[in-house]
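Re: that backbone. Tokens:
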């Protein structure tokens, strides 16, 4: 039995991971689960899987869980450091699926403990930078990506050696506004941005997919995970989200990974690698799909991708700022305080400053992230005041 910890077990990735574990109860034990505040979901999961420990970032949720009479005697941790404490417990794999940079401390803790890390929480890597992967190597913590694109690239890398890679092809769906005019995008509402054409995901990544900031975060994640410069990462839209990404080799071969638009595929692989098990995802029927269509990204309508390239050139301070500005601007948009196109405008203004000052060693990433977000908030306030 392999012991698994899931950080963010009530979220979209967390729920898909649990659905995968249900298929293989003879092979995996869900040992520990971390939540923000979802104590009712926690109670149901702990009852079903008999977990040994649970954590809540919100102490009140932890109290409600303790009082509900369904904790089954499992240990309860609470507070801002609880998920990191949980992630440091020895298990076979920690699945990191908290959303945003809030997941960084638990990702670092899992790595420090030498746990194998199935990484969905891309923002943690974007904030920590390549030094996070260096630390993983030092601690013997294997990192397997869970983002569908990075899982695909990881699998395509098995076909050759790193020095034989010519270029990486990172694909995306284009999001709900792929065919919208610049003016229509400017007027887009949070409800419009929530309608992703191909994927069902949590609220933050769904918005990030509409701005293509998610593709920007993924570009940075690709550069860091596969140690490749941004100029050798091509981004194309595959409208059906069937081709999850690919690797071009120096001999002219293109090795691609295809599959249904269903995260259970990448999650299952992340938990079972180097083996494969059934995930409940149907085989794709290429005759029914008929054709694979590709488009380039229109940088004018979707500036977030180009901004991510720019951020990468500024190093870890730049990519941390990119993430901080995106999280701050995304929240303001969801609250109705700014328009959709103000999101890239605010990221752009944040990156125009001296981002190198946010570069930090792993022990100070949380503080640097807090400072980067405070800076982004001040930039956003100025932006809103000027627009009024
Ligand atoms: N969804 C996808 O298909 C997909 C695909 C690729 C990559 N990813 C990446 O996977 C990560 C998770 O995405 P998601 O869509 O699953 O997000 P989500 O549905 O919003 O779920 C987020 C999870 O994190 C928990 N959480 C939030 N803040 C927390 C904190 N401070 N401490 C502990 N737990 C906290 C939430 O718990 P509560 O509900 O209790 O607050 C919830 O379980 C993101 O980094 C995303 O980019 C997602």
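Recovered sequence:
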């Amino acid at each position: 039995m392999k012991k698994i910890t899931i950080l963010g077990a009530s979220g979209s990735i967390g729920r898909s991971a649990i659905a995968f574990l249900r298929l293989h109860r003879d092979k995996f034990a869900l040992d520990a689960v971390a939540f923000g505040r979802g104590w009712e979901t926690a109670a149901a999961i702990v009852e079903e899987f008999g977990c040994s420990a649970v954590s809540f970032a919100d102490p009140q949720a932890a109290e409600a869980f303790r009082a509900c009479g369904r904790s089954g005697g499992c240990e309860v941790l609470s507070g801002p450091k609880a998920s990191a404490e949980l992630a440091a417990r020895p298990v076979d794999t920690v699945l990191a699926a908290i959303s945003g940079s809030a997941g960084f401390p638990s990702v670092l803790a899992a790595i420090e403990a030498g746990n194998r890390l199935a990484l969905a929480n891309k923002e943690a890597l974007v904030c920590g930078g390549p030094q996070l992967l260096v630390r993983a190597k030092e601690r013997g913590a294997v990192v397997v990506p869970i983002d569908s694109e990075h899982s695909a690239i990881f699998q395509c890398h098995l076909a050759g050696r790193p020095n034989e890679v010519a270029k990486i092809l990172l694909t995306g769906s284009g999001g709900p506004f792929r065919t919208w005019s610049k003016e229509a995008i400017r007027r887009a509402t949070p409800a419009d941005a929530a309608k992703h054409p191909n994927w069902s995901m949590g609220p933050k990544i769904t918005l990030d997919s509409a701005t293509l900031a998610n593709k920007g975060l993924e570009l940075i994640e690709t550069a860091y995970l596969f140690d490749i410069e941004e100029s050798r990462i091509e981004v194309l839209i595959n409208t059906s989200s069937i081709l999850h990404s690919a690797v071009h080799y120096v001999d002219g071969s293109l090795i691609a990974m295809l599959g249904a638009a269903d995260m259970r595929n990448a999650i299952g692989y992340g938990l079972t690698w180097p083996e494969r098990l059934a995930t409940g995802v149907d085989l794709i029927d290429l005759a029914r799909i008929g054709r694979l269509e590709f488009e380039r990204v229109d940088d004018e309508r979707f500036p977030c991708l180009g901004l991510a390239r720019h951020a990468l050139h500024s190093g870890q301070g730049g990519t941390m700022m990119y993430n901080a500005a995106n999280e701050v601007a995304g929240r303001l948009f969801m609250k109705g305080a700014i328009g959709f196109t103000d999101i890239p405008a605010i990221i752009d203004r944040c990156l125009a400053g001296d981002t190198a000052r946010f570069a930090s060693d792993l022990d100070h990433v949380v503080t640097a992230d807090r400072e980067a977000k405070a800076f982004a908030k001040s930039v956003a306030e100025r932006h809103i005041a000027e627009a009024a």
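The domain at 314-388 is CATH 1.10.1740.10 (Rna Polymerase Sigma Factor; Chain: A). The chain has 18 helices and twelve strands.
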